[in-house]
């Protein structure tokens, strides 16, 4: 099951079924000429073509030029932009920081979200309120989260400093947070966790509700304690949801922009800069559109390759019938 | 019985401990909006004394704030109408027609899930400029709708397929056209699914920052996230006022969440488990 283009391989009648013959065809399978289907597809297809597919080609095209963004790109540079990109320490740093954020998300954010989901999946008073509270940050925009935490983490006078100031271990963080290169990325990660934690918790809750109670009861009758039930039943049955959540974390880290732009604009000294921020800097602050185009293409290729590999090796079974097979009725 | 009570109490304690990380920043924001910036920085934890209402009332009586809210509403509604209309038609074709290339086109749309919008932002800017759509709401509405298509089509298609084909046959035997069936029977039946995808599209549009930041430089069209960033730039040291601005900007989102919670979560979980 791959994402490559496949055509409908079902046998089809040589003659297109005319309108009136619909009754004779098997239920739900009436074959129609694709002319009439085209009218239904056309609006979506045009939108998608002009605003998703064409931009990606435009990015490829501009990345081959040295171009300031005005007039037509004329100064053909071949793969120069890509060569420059490969040697750019900031871009390499972007890759590294992206990886750090992904690893932190998977190692910290997702397990805590899973634990909270398991906790809130049990019957308890006020459960609906708790869920709503944990989910609330997700519906607020990244800009709101960023501005709020920018103020909370103000060195010296912010809420965070006041709270940790005298504590052992974390007290050393006071005065640093976003303003020190060594703590800026972990601070950014804390804000990301605040913002996205509830989303992951919510999809785990949905996954947990899909696990039949009988299976857990059966395990419990067989003498499995809570931990064994979790390891042996819940976790494997939740695996598809976990894989999706890892996928979304990685795609999210690849394109992280809003939170960074609002809190640090990538600083101090690039310590929180992401690929999207670098692209924005070159494209719209320094007017090196060709180079920025090369960053776009790199982001596209990274997410594409990652998605395809992940699809191939991790999501294969989960997504069958959803993303990859249009028919789904095979 | 007592062991059960203790367990329940510790469970609540755990949830409260975790929840405080979520709630404290929000409470801090609401309360800080009532302070003077001086009080906010000298005593971030304490309550304001006196409660200064003018931060909030000043913003509420400013034209900028309301214009940004209005722009955000207009752009979110237009994006959603366009997304849902185009997706419903396409999902109908994918769910109900067999045509050459159906797999190819569906895979193409589904693959769109994997293209991060940030990748397309820069070339979109170049493209929109050549279409003359910079500083025009359509420059945000059209791309947003395009990027919302994949998830919307996937959710709607799977819903449309649950509606029995016999219904369509009966309708067509009674003289209903294809589009008539779609418009008069399928869409009304699909109201819950349409609600779900609409809420998803509204929230995504409402929170979008990157694209409006680039496309809508003219303050006349700025949306609320861009407005917040501008406001922060303008009053960068008046923290209490900036906080009041974001608290007021939270209100529509929270209110919408309160009303549409079930649809939103249904959409996210359907989206997350189905692709």
TrEMBL record, chain A:
Membrane topology: Multi-pass membrane protein
Predominant cellular place of this UniProt entry's protein: membrane
Annotated segments matching region Disordered: 1-26
Designated name of the protein: Raffinose/stachyose/melibiose transport system permease protein
SUPFAM superfamilies (UniProt xref): MetI-like
UniProt xrefs under InterPro entries: ABC_transporter_permease, MetI-like, MetI-like_sf
Subcellular location: Cell membrane
Pfam family, one: BPD_transp_1
Family: Belongs to the binding-protein-dependent transport system permease family.
Species of origin: Actinomadura coerulea
One BP term from GO: transmembrane transport
UniProtKB/TrEMBL annotation, chain B:
Subcellular location: Cell membrane
Principal place of residence: membrane
Keyword RNA-binding attached: no
InterPro entries: MetI-like, MetI-like_sf
Membrane topology per record: Multi-pass membrane protein
Transmembrane segments: 12-31, 73-95, 104-128, 140-160, 181-206, 239-260
Keyword Coiled coil: no
GO BP field: transmembrane transport
Top-level taxon of the source organism: Bacteria
GO cellular component: plasma membrane
SUPFAM superfamilies for this protein: MetI-like (SSF161098)
Gene3D superfamilies, sorted: MetI-like
Keywords, sorted A to Z: Cell membrane, Membrane, Transmembrane, Transmembrane helix, Transport
ABC transmembrane type-1 domain span: 69-260
PANTHER family registered for this protein in UniProt: ABC TRANSPORTER PERMEASE PROTEIN MG189-RELATED, ABC TRANSPORTER PERMEASE PROTEIN MG189-RELATED-RELATED
Protein family (similarity comment): Belongs to the binding-protein-dependent transport system permease family.
Protein name (record): Raffinose/stachyose/melibiose transport system permease protein
Organism for this UniProt entry: Actinomadura coerulea
